[in-house]
Amino acid sequence: MKILGWFRSVVAKLFRGSALADDTDEELRLHIQLRADDLERSGLPRAEAERRARIEFGAYERYREESHEALGANFIETLVQDIRFSLRLLRKSPGFAAVAVFTLALAIGANAVVFGVLNALILRPLNVPYAQSLFAIERGQDRAINHSYPDYADLRDRNRSFEDLAAYNVAGAVLDTGNNAAPVWLMEVTGNYFDALGIQPFLGRFFHRSDERGPNSAPYIVLTYPYWHTHFQDDHGVVGRTVQLNKHAFTILGVAPPGFQGTLLFLAPDFWVPIVNQEQVEGLNVLNERGNRGILMVMGHLKPGVTQAQAVADLNSIGEYLKKTYPKDDGDMTFSLTTPALAGDWLGGPMQQFLAGLMLLAGLILLAACANLGSLFAARAADRSREIALRLALGSSRRRILRQVFTEAVLISLAGGAIGLLGSAALLHELSAWRPLSTTAPTMRVPVDPDAKVYLVALLLAIASGVLFGAVPVRQILRTNPYEVVKAGLSGRVVKRITVRDMLLMAQIAICAVLVTSSMVAVRGLVRSLHSNFGFEPKHAMLVGTSFSMAGYGGDSMAAVQKRLIDFLQNITGVQAVGSVDRPQLYFGANSAIVFTDKTADLTPSHAAAEAMTYNVSPGYFDAAGSGLLAGRSFTWHDDENAPRVAVVNREFAVKIFGSATGAIGRYFKKRDGTRIQVVGIVEDGKYASITEAPQPAMFLPALQSPYIRGTHMNDITFVVRSERDPQQLSAAIKSTLAELDPGMPVTLRMWDKELNDSALFASRIATMALGVLGLMGAALSITGIFGMAAYSVSKRLRELGIRVALGAQRKEVLEAALGRPFRLLVFGSAAGLVLGLLGTRVLAYIVYGATPRDPLVLTGVVLAMALLGLVATWIPAQRALSVNPLILLREE
Amino acid sequence: MPDQAQLLPGTLDLLILRAVSLGPLHGYGILLRIAQISGNALLVEQGALYPGLFRLVRQGLLKASWGTSENNRRAKFYELTAAGRRRLREETDNWNRLATAIGAALAAQPEEA
Predict the structure, then answer these.
(1) Which of A396, A446, A542, A801 is spaced 20 to 30 A from A233 at the CA atom?
(2) Number of domains within chain B
(3) What is the pLDDT of residues A379-437, one digit of tens each?
(4) pLDDT tens string A748-758
(5) How many domains does chain A have?
(6) Are residues A278 and A380 in the same domain?
(7) pLDDT band with cut points at 50, 70 and 90 for residue A660
(8) Domain range spanning residue B87?
């Protein structure tokens, strides 16, 4: 009740604060008027009567103030006064204000951006009903997110913990809505997908589990809202329309609501189709193969009251059963739960670590900025000490002065926060609209639109930092002795050995050194990964992707077409080598298969000797890819279906299965179906699924001996064309050659090194960019910090320096006197920061390949960078110190 | 004004309440009324009246409303609330008790103690 009353009075004052002040004024003035009237009636002249009335009334201002206070907390009014005063002060020193606001805008902007990303990708729940209880299932020790359809069906039907389990897979296809065939990305989902997630259609209807009646029984499409919007112009008549998907008739059932674009945050499909139609979409149906783990993710809502641990136990008991019942296909069938938004721990793990690290660094930036501003404020308070002393002497309370200082600090931080937030919101919107890799891959997106939480965090950070750096000069003000200061001025004070300002500057430099160190480690790592050995040579190689199944070739004719294509490409002038591969290395993951030693009789997964990356390649591939053959031979066109099965394996494979690289030639290993394969060649190790992976065993099989060609969805097959020719000319030549061969064949062309930049190196590039920006901000902050400190110390000691020069001090001695202190702080701070940075950058190694802090180049780089920063920052103050003219100085004051 | 006495702390509030208890008054009127009922014996610096007045309004003992003064100017008039009336009664009793006790103490002869 009381609080409510107080609140009401504060609010009332907020809105009619000045009206209230006017009322009080009116009342007090009326009093004096009436008194003067009375006095006039008693015989005084008017002027004298008014004068007497004013005297009798007493100290008008004081009573007015006291009246205001008596009327209740006039917090707001004092605040308005403080704000006015602070604004006036800031206007008088626009340089200080601009630097302070800019510094904070940068720091808070950086924090808002990082938090915005963290919030959108990790903290914010998926846009599905009851997102808290939605979990995805991961399998085995490596927490794989892919499952086979039969396993999925068993999990779905036998578990007692989930309301329902749905699953999906990402695929590419060609959609034709009427003579406009275009590539699309879609999700093949189980029939219960929308029902399990609890999504309601925006338009039309969804498909359900009851629509699934065997292979290709549900040719239905549910569009995402954005795709409907851009490709069907919001046409409500789209429901019921028949379109051609890979030349099969599909019916559009409905449109999903705007907020739902699947459960993968970074990848939005164009539409959904039932997975029972897999054959029509992907060209083959693997839904009854228990060993083919082609479903990306299985997920569902936990039943109310079921804990995660209970659900895991439930799933594991099913896993136990599956392992026993299907020993040939199911190995390690232990399960764990994860969130579906970032494809589980595969992406979510490193992303979480990286974003947490980034948040930490951004927090450090803000701390550094606060330290920076704190010392600026302390310096300012020192400069203002004469004014503060005067105000104290005139009866102002210390509390009131502190309040004003804090008001000024918070004012600056709010201004900085507002600017920083505006900038970061713009950047986040930009990021959300950004569609990286849109040419060669499914539509990637970074849905990081800021929400209220981001604004709130930025506001809190702004206020907190304002209070933080505003608190720095508090002690200074509390200890101000008005008499001393007014009497003696400032110059008489003895400089202490180490001040709060020194500590702040050192902390700030240390923080900046951490930032500079980590960004250098990241940049070095990126540079190294660009030049690392991938096991192939991405320079001067063009990837020509095409789809045989889309072009209408199938079965036996594929091999013939493939050979003819390679021959044609080979004959283009300037082409040195041509080979084909089902999926290039480092292209959005890799296919793998388990292999057994020749002696193994029991071919169950638990007896496997290794899991090897698997590539189906044509003769000439190794030359075209630039992979070095270490021993043995490459494939020929005679390694076909009628010839004995052969393979080229990498060194890691040879060492792992046969014990040595050279001894492996001519020996045999087994695939899961029991086929014996003879090793005919050894190729160098490379990178297969990711840049940061440890050496992996890999095997290359002749394409002509593969039962079918199954590549990356849209590009069944990729030809690697090695040539030193200009890429533009080359691609024109390739296009015309292929069109001559078959005008209906869809073709995509891109240089292999560019492709790598967009796919495998994408994460490290983004990480490096983010860290680079933070490093630059850290560097900028340390420059302003050191500059501020050095400039201040020079200007404070100008007179002393003048005396030194007058007494014959050398340039070196003057410099030492003026800048020795900032310089020492720089050295100590940098050293501390370097050590901390090196300790901290271990996290980086997860994301940026080859990021190691134990790198002499990084060490020297950081030392040089900090020295350079120090030089830049102290240059102007040093010049000023050196140009001191003792005569002019001594004449002053 | 030789016969005027300084106010004891806290007594201004009581005087204001008393002055207003006889009918609604504006600030200057309260001052005149206090002077009148105390026989000009009490000294109040005129401005000091207002913080006290506002304090009483805030405590809910007085309520203020805008009206017109005798010479047709806008003025704020104060009157007692029920709580104010109650407080005046209590404070008057307190004061009387205190005054009696102090008076008795000051009038007492040394040997009676």
Answers:
(1) A446
(2) 1
(3) 777 777 777 777 776 656 677 778 888 888 888 899 999 999 898 888 888 887 776 66
(4) 788 888 878 77
(5) 4
(6) no
(7) confident
(8) 5-107
- Listed residue (B20, B55, B62) closest to A72, CA to CA: B55
Chain A residues within an 8 Å CB radius of B28: 30-31, 34-35
3-state secondary structure A320-388: HHHHHHCCCCCCCCCEEEECCCCCCHHHHHHHHHHHHHHHHHHHHHHHHHHHHHHHHHHHHHHHCHHHH
Structural domain boundaries enclosing A432: 349-530+762-891
Judge if A260 and A205 occupy the same domain: yes
Contacts of B55 in chain A (CB under 8 A): 70
Residue length, chain A?
A: 893
Indicate the pLDDT class of residue A491, thresholds 50, 70 and 90. very low
- Residues A697, A649: contact at Cβ < 8 Å? yes
CATH code of B38's domain:
1.10.10.10
- B69 chain-A contacts, CB cut-off 8 A: 30, 34
| Average pLDDT of the residues of chain A | 81
Residues A519 and A560 in one domain: no
Closest residue in chain B to residue A24, using alpha carbons only: B50
Higher pLDDT pick, A71 / A140: A140
Residue A66's closest chain B neighbor by CA?
A: B51
- Among A22, A71, A77, the strongest candidate for a mutation testing the B interface, having the largest count of B CBs within 10 A, is A71
A701 occurs within a structural domain: yes
Q: Output the six-digit token pair for A45.
A: 């002249």
DSSP A302: B
Is residue B67, in this structure, part of any structural domain at all? yes
* Residue B89 in tokens: 């009664």
In a domain, B113, yes or no: no
Confidence band, pLDDT 50/70/90 cuts, at residue A75:
low
Beta A182-189 vs A271-274: how paired, if at all? parallel
ipTM of this complex: 0.85
Same-domain status, A636 and A737 = yes
CB < 8 Å to A72, chain B: 58
Same domain, A778 and A796: yes
Cα–Cα nearest to A202, from A253, A254, A272: A254
Closest chain B residue to A61, measured at CA: B47
Q: Mutation test of the interface with chain A: which of B12, B28, B61, choosing the one with the most A Cβ atoms within 10 A?
A: B28
Half-sphere exposure (CA, 13 Å, Cβ side) for A236? 2
- DSSP helix/strand/coil, A50: helix
Identify from B25, B46, B77, B78 which residue to disrupt to test chain A contact, counting A C-beta atoms within 10 A and taking the largest count: B46
Element spanning A47, H or E: helix A46-57
Is residue A535 one of the residues assigned to a domain? no
Candidates B6, B16, B11; CA nearest to B53 is B16
Q: Are residues A313 and A424 in the same domain?
A: no
Give the three-state DSSP class for A172: strand
The answer to whether position A98 is within a domain reads: no
Within-domain flag for A104: no
Percent of chain A clearing pLDDT 70 (strictly above): 86
pLDDT single digits (tens) A170-187? 887 778 888 777 778 888
Quote the pLDDT of residue A20: 60
Instruction: Give the C-alpha separation, B84 to B62, whole Å.
Output: 6
What's the pLDDT tens digit per position in A692-710? 677 889 999 998 887 554 4
- CA dihedral (A870, A872, A874, A879) positive or negative: positive
What single DSSP character describes residue A295?
Answer: B
Compute CA distances A317 → A295, A304, A324, A728, whole Å. 21, 20, 11, 58
- Nearest-Cα distance to chain B for A65, in Å, is 9
- Residue B112 falls inside a structural domain: no
Residue A361 sits in the same domain as residue A320 = no
Query: Given an 8 Å threshold on Cβ–Cβ distance, is A66 in contact with B46?
Result: no
Question: What's the whole-model pTM score?
Answer: 0.66
